[in-house]
Amino acid sequence: MSALKDTIIQAFSTNTLTQYIACFIVSMIPLIELRGAIPVAYVFKGMNPEFSLVTGYVIIAIGNMLPVPVIFFFARKVLEWGKDKKVIGKFFTFCLEKGHKGGVKLQEKAGRGLFVALMLFVGIPLPGTGAWTGTLAASLLDMKFKESIIAVVCGVALAGVIVGLACTLGFGAWFGITG
After folding, report:
1. Which of 16, 55, 136, 151 lies in disulfide reach of 119, CB 3.0 to 4.6 Å?
2. DSSP string, 23-79
3. CA-angle at 65, arms to 146 and 13, nearest 5°
4. Higher confidence at residue 109 or residue 91?
């Protein structure tokens, strides 16, 4: 077991391509998304000076945005299809109702500023927010595809800046304290 662990650590500490692929995959995982992939990129940068944070950010943003069109066009349909199914019906109904209620509240508060509200919802890195949730909300609110995608892209960029600053300050403080 120790040999396998050493092999994995060796692969991730020196192979830049493997590190970029890992960041890409992490950025596509629901709930983790960009918010989890950026700290991983900072760890890889600490392990491998050849790892470029700029390239990592681009790969992470692409990975985070890749599922968005699929979510926009199909998630609502899948949830509506499954809401009357025996095993999954209650959960799917809960997701639809929660998304609809949240969307109505967001729309009431935002009024004509729904674009900005969606961008901030995606961009402020809190649990339960992000590109996946924001795109589903946009779909449930019947927002236009182009408008919602632009809002989500801007939100992902904002989240990237916020998480990047937190990592820079956090890791910088950590390395300053621990040497």
Report:
1. 151
2. HHHHHTSTTTHHHHHHHHHHHHHHH-TT--HHHHHHHHHHHHHTTHHHIIIIIHHHH
3. 165
4. 91
Rounded CA separation 151/129 (Å): 13
- Of 87, 89, 111, 102, which Cα lies nearest the Cα of 136? 102
Residue entry with tokens 């609502």: 76
Residue whose token pair is 């809190």: 126
39 vs 98, 111, 114, 120, 159, CA distance in Å? 30, 35, 30, 21, 12
The stretch 161-167 carries a mean pLDDT of 92
Write down the pLDDT at residue 7. 61
Full-model pTM: 0.80
**How many residues are present in the chain?**
179
pLDDT at 140: 84
Q: Helix crossing, 114-123 with 131-140: angle to 10°?
A: 150
